[in-house]
Amino acid sequence: MSCDEKKIPEYPLTQIYFYLTEGCNLKCRHCWLAPKYHSAENPLPVLKPELFQRIIRQAKAMGLSGLKLTGGEPLLHPQIHELLETVRAEELRLTVETNGVLCTSELAKQIAGCKNPFVSVSIDGADADTHEWVRGVKGCFEAAKEGIRNLVKAGLKPQMIMSVMKHNEDQITDVVKMAESLGCASVKFNIVQPTARGTALHENGQVLSIQELVELGKWVEHTLSAKTKLSLQYSHPPAFKPLSKICRNGGGCGICGILGIIGVLPDGSFALCGIGETVPELIFGNAATDPLEEVWNKTLVLKELRQGLPENLGGICKECIMKKVCLGNCIAMNYAGSKNLWAPFWYCEEARKAGLFPASRVRS
Amino acid sequence: MENEKLIANPTIVLREEFDDWAVLFDPDTGNAYGMNPVSVFVWKHLDGNHALEDIEKKLRAECKNVPDDAGVFIKEFIADLVAKGLAGHKFQNA
Lengths: 364, 94
Prior knowledge:
Strand order of the largest sheet of chain B: 5-1-6
Oligomer: heterodimer
Number of strands of chain A: 12
Distance between the termini of chain A: 30 Å
Number of helices of chain A: 15
Largest interface: A-B, 14 and 15 residues
Largest sheet of chain A: 10 strands, mixed
Largest sheet of chain B: 3 strands, antiparallel
CATH architecture of chain B: Alpha-Beta Complex
Structural class of chain B: alpha+beta
Strand order of the largest sheet of chain A: 9-8-7-6-5-4-1-10-11-12
Number of helices of chain B: 3
């Protein structure tokens, strides 16, 4: 691991992902982080508001323009109102990833009062049985729908996120209809990742095969998209997306902005993202003791990524002509599965082996 | 300049996709550019036999509902290709 200081360009820290709570109020069987179950009898640590504020103050001087509140479950944080007030006062773009269960009318209004708020709510089925089979807690389906209604009443147009697996693949169309009826603006279909609890789903054959995933992506982007006014996003890598979708989205296509992002874990640790909760070598210090600027500028892993992306990527990523846009899709996921920063993304690698990687998107 | 014949850089690869969009790929730099169907039409006429106004005429003859300002788009697109080294003007013998 060597780095040449002179060749490393400056990278502004544009966004922070705050993983606010160590626990979660649901027990999702596909969760890529696997937080412990939080209950009144078993409260779990959360990020201290004073650390949250200290990090934001430091980061604004480094280019911070927005942040994401996620978890665990961000709305479970006992001082969530105080945190949201900080976001509003600092005029930072707000993104919230939530299961919606705790999204009261009051919280929804407070979120709506922040700058350019974007909220995504996880819904994994069009009925309670399916959603709660995935999410592991009775009653969470109606509670999540009520959370969405509160967001819509507050003037927001949330995104619904559905993680697709064998158990719920037949409900995709109905989930889109439900999103329409509730007033959502978009639906995103996530692929279950082979990390943390998702690993067991992959090993037990409860996820779709690579052939099914690739076909489903085409169907969502070409057929289902034409039947709804909602924006539909299927979270496969850019190599699989039609150019028309990539170009019309301004080239972003929902990819991770890894070179401008840092994660903050509930104990104040800085990490590549939430993956630090299960991969300790991707933790880079702690906000209680380490200045953010020093962490951002001196952490070897971050410097290696700035210097090596995308050219050092291996496998199919090396051959992919979308690599400058995609940047390996998810470095954290790639590392978690291989302990190699430059490992290719599993989805693309499996597609290549199955002869399903788009021929027009490889170098030769 | 507008009457000069235009020619695509022969090292650049055009990868056409199922929906009439295409990728222009530069194997030397690894850069890739997405092109919509009209851009693909223009690219295919950068063969050393067509000038900018010839391409616009062909586009109007072969396609429906071509907007009035299509010529402006074509001119800007070609200028962008030339600036990126993806196309150029054909050398004319004296």
